[in-house]
């Protein structure tokens, strides 16, 4: 049955809270809402998509850090050993610079054409440009492929919006915790893969010959593994449900959709919007959103600088103030940290968030990060096995505190806007975050 505008009539009407919920035939967002209303449990299937897509976008971001020092050395762009960090910083920054230029556009696209098309295209870009980066034969090819990987990778903003939209309000903390968990683990597993699999002809001479393909391209194997995983995720996304509402709502339908997300919208914003349902509050005037984005950007700068400096510091010679670790040693530390992140975010963080809330938990985590970071330089005076034990403990605590802050800001950002602005809001946060993360590796590398 269709109305005068040629649209399908509501399939189901149901009162919920103060609003009226309407489900329109053929609308993927309404189909998801019907499933949420009918099934109050945790949507494990949808959460798996959130997990693997986030992991897919996180893996290539940091997988290069353990071998970037050696890659820059082999590309013969640095004239002195001390200059390697300088050139490495710009390779790390190129990804974030590219993402900074396009994140808001990808977020707006996700609000107009849907979350799924943007996610699929982003995964495809990971497959192509991550593979090409592993085949880089010059410094500028490495920078160009990383830049394009960042510019065409619009995954993280839409997947944060998607995580909120596939679950009921009581499961939102868990949903965004999954995003930050997968993100944090990706930033750990990625370097672990890079550390273990880079230069296979040197590390595994019985398996890989120096004259083989992997001998001629010593940094291709970790990139290949990430790209293969991205192909698997790309295929699985065929069955990924869309969550965006794709119908022109009447006044009643607009009210029904707002009723679904009444808990997400600031009360002051509701008052401002009550005069006109078609008037949207500017994202830049939404102080809850902008304040959380500012915190997110500042901490992203800190976290990205730490991620790059940690690997460079650990692999540098002790005479330069480093630990003289091999890439395999760094990969082992990061693998232990990744395992701890999984346990912390799935079992501890939801309880912490329930007791303290996202704001207080983020504040406490930020304060605790300070003494831990001050302790790192003094580790150079330690010897084995005490050094490895202390370093692993510090890395575990530091990274768990980091994902606490990241998850808190995710929750605040997504609860500050209604659905039809959520993609753009997340895109805007990714633009700011990417700008700060682009500056961080270059700045940290120079320092």
UniProtKB/TrEMBL annotation:
GO CC terms of this entry: membrane
Cellular compartment(s): Membrane
PROSITE patterns: MFS (PS50850)
InterPro entries noted in UniProt: MFS, MFS_dom, MFS_trans_sf
Membrane topology, record value: Multi-pass membrane protein
Residue span(s) of domain Major facilitator superfamily (MFS) profile: 46-447
Metal-binding is among the record's keywords: no
Main subcellular location: membrane
Keyword Transit peptide found: no
Pfam families xrefs: MFS_1
Bilayer-crossing regions: 44-72, 84-106, 118-141, 176-199, 219-240, 289-313, 333-352, 364-383
Keywords attached to this entry: Membrane, Transmembrane, Transmembrane helix, Transport
Protein name listed in UniProt: Major facilitator superfamily (MFS) profile domain-containing protein
Organism whose genome encodes this protein: Urochloa decumbens
């Amino acid at each position: 049955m269709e109305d005068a505008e040629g649209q399908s009539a509501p399939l189901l009407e149901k009162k919920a809270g103060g609003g009226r919920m309407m489900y329109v035939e053929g609308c993927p967002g309404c189909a998801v809402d019907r499933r949420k209303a009918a099934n109050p449990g945790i949507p494990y299937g949808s959460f798996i998509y959130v997990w693997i897509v986030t992991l897919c976008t996180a893996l290539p971001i940091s997988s290069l850090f353990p071998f970037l020092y050696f890659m820059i050395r082999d590309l013969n762009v640095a004239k002195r050993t001390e200059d390697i960090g300088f050139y490495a910083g710009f390779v790390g920054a190129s990804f974030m610079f590219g993402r900074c230029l396009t994140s808001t556009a990808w977020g707006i696209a996700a609000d107009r054409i849907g979350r799924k098309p943007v996610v699929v295209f982003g995964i495809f870009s990971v497959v192509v440009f991550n593979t090409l980066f592993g085949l880089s034969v010059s410094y500028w090819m490495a920078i160009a492929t990383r830049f394009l990987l960042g510019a065409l990778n619009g995954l993280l903003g839409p997947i944060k919006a998607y995580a909120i939209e596939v679950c009921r309000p009581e499961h939102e903390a868990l949903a965004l915790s999954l995003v930050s968990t997968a993100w944090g683990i990706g930033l750990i597993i990625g370097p672990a893969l890079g550390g273990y699999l880079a230069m296979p002809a040197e590390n595994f001479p019985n398996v890989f010959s120096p004259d083989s393909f992997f001998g001629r391209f010593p940094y291709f194997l970790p990139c290949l593994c990430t790209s293969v995983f991205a192909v698997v995720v790309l295929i699985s996304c065929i069955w990924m449900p869309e969550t965006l509402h794709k119908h022109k709502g009447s006044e009643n339908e607009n009210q029904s959709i707002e009723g679904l997300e009444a808990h997400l919208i600031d009360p002051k914003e509701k008052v401002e919007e009550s005069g006109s349902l078609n008037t949207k509050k500017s994202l830049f005037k939404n102080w809850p959103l902008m304040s959380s984005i500012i915190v997110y950007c500042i901490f992203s700068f800190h976290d990205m600088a730490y991620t790059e400096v940690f690997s460079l510091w650990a692999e540098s010679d002790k005479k330069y103030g480093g630990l003289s670790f091999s890439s395999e040693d760094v990969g082992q530390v990061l693998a232990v940290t990744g395992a701890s992140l999984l346990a912390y975010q799935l079992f501890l963080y939801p309880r912490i968030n329930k007791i303290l809330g996202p704001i207080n938990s983020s504040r406490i985590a930020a304060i605790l990060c300070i003494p831990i970071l001050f302790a790192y330089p003094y580790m150079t005076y330690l010897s084995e096995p005490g050094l490895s034990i202390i370093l692993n403990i510090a890395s575990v605590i530091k990274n768990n505190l980091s994902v606490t802050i990241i998850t808190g800001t995710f929750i605040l950002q997504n609860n500050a806007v209604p659905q039809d602005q959520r993609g753009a809001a997340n895109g805007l946060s990714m633009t700011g975050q990417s700008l700060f993360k682009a500056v961080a590796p270059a700045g940290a590398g120079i320092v």
